[in-house]
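TEACHING EXERCISE
Course module: macromolecular assemblies
Task: Read the component lines below, then compare them to the predicted structure of the full complex.
Student: A.B.
Group: 4
Components provided:
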Amino acid sequence: MDQIRELYQEVIIDHGRHPRNFGSLEHPTHHAQGFNPLCGDQLYLDLFLEGDIITDVAFRGEGCAISMASASLMTETLKGKTIAQAEQIFHDFHQVVTEGKVNHAAELAKLGKLSVLTGVCDYPARVKCATLAWHTMHNALSNQTEVASTDDEAS
Amino acid sequence: MHRLDIEKIRADFPILQRKVYGKPLVYFDNGASSQKPRCVIDAMVSHWEMHNANVHRGLYALSEEATASFEKAREVVQKHINAKELNEIVFVRGATEAINLVAATFGRTVVGEGDEVIITTLEHHANIVPWQQLCEQKNAKLKVIPLLPNGEINLEEYRKAFNAKTKLAAFAHVSNTLGTINPVEEMVSIAHSHNVPVLIDGAQAVPHQQVDVQQIDCDFYVFTGHKVYGPTGIGVLYGKRKLLDAMPPYQTGGDMIRQVTFEKTEFQAAPHRFEAGTPFIEGALGLAAALQYIQQLGLDAIAEYEQELLKYATESLSAIPGLTIIGNAPHKAAIISFVMENVHPHDIGTILDREGIAIRAGHHCTMPLMKALGVPATARASMAFYNTKEEIDRLVAGLEVVRGLFK
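Instructor-supplied answer key:
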C-alpha cells in the first residue's frame, strides 16, 4: 500500500481526476495528436505561441490517472516557457522517468511539480503513460503531422 | 461427477508456488495465457533430453521416436476435440495463424467480388483482421453482427444477415473479453442452412469445456496451445477433410511436398500440406501433455468448478461500490470484465500487480467491441481451475485498495 502510494500521490490522483487546462484552444498555433497503441490512450494537444514563447496550452483525451495527470501537470509547466526550455524539461523529465535519475535535489527542483511523477520509473509498463503528453508536445512544437506514439519508448 | 482436488492440482503448477512483490501470486490472466503443469514442462524437456531429432525424415532411432510422438500428439488432439479423422488436425503456431491460413487459402478460393463474410462484434482482432484483409483484396463485404446489451450475439440479426452472397461465417466460441459462450451449434446450423461454411475461434473454449467438433458440425475450428496449459507457439487448425483436401497450400517448402522438380511441385495431402518446414515438435508434445492432463482431471469437473468460481467472483465483485461488470450473458465462461467509477483499468492493473494479483487491463485485442460497448478499456479477471475462492477474496481486497487510493 505504501509503495503504491508513492506512485499514486494525492497530486496525481487530483490532476488525474480534475485535469487542468482540459479542453481546446480556439486558435492554436500548434497542434498534435498522441496515441498509445498499447492501451489506447488518446491525447489532443493545442499550443498557442507568441514568438518563441508558449502562452497558452490545452489538452483533451482519455487515459489512466498517470497519463491524465502527466498531461495536466505538463500544461501547467509549459505556460510561459520558450520552445527550448520546454524541450529541455521534456529531456530532463524523460531521463528521470526512464532511468530514475533523481539523485540530486537540484534535479528534482528543476522539475518542480513534475517531480511527483518520478515514482513511475519503478513501473516500466507505465512509463509510456507518463511520457505520452510530452511526445505529443514535441511533435506539436516541431510541426510534425503524424500522430505521436510512445512506440519507441524504452520500457 | 468427481470433484477436483484443487490443492493437489495447484501443486502440479510450479509457478503457483512463487511470490510477486513478496505476496503469493494470484494469476487471473488465464484468458491471455495459462500456466503450465509439470507434465507439460517434462514432456518438452524429455524430448530435448532423450529423443531430439527432426521428424518425417531420419532413418534412425531418434527421428523415428520423435516422429512417432509428434504424430501421437496429433492423435491426442484429434481425440480431444473428437475430430473424425487424424488428417483433419493441422499443427500451426496458434489460433491467429490458423485463421490466417484459412483466410489465405480457403477464403481466397471461395470469396469473390461482391461476396460477404459474416463475423460478430465480439471477435478478437485475430478473427477480424484476416477477414477484413481478405474482403479488401476481393472487394467483398465484411458484415458484423451486433450484440444484445448483455453481451450475447443478436441471433435474430445473425439469422437475417445471410443471403446468396454470403460465403463464410467466422465467430468465437467464447468471447475473450465478455466471457459469453455463443450457441455455436445453432449458429452453425443456421449458416449451413444457407450452405455457408463456418470457422469457429475456440481459443477461449478449449481450455474450459469439452469441445466436440463433430457435434458442433463446424467446418473449421481453431485454438491455441498456450491458453490450454500448453506451450506458446503451437496451435491447432481443425478442418473437415474434404475442405482441407481441396485447399491450396499456405506456406510451401520442405515436408509438405510429395515430389519437387524445377518445373513443378506435387504437394502432400492434408495435414502435411499445411505444415511446411520443421514443425514445433516439442510444442506439439507439450500441447498433447496439456490436453491429456485436463482430460485426466475431467472437462466436466473443470467446467463445473470454474462455474462455481465465476458465480462467487460475480457476486463478490458486484458488491463493490462503483464497480460494474461488463458482459452478463446467461452462459458465460469464467471471465469477468469490469470497470470502476473514476478509476482507469490500467491504474487498477498496476495497483493489483503490487498486491501480487495479475489481471489484464486494456482493450483485450477487441478494440471494435470496446467501441461498441462505449468504454475505452476494461479490467479483466479470467480464471482457471487452479484458482480458488480465497484468491477471489484477495482480488476483492486488492480492489478495496484501489478504491482507497481513488476515493
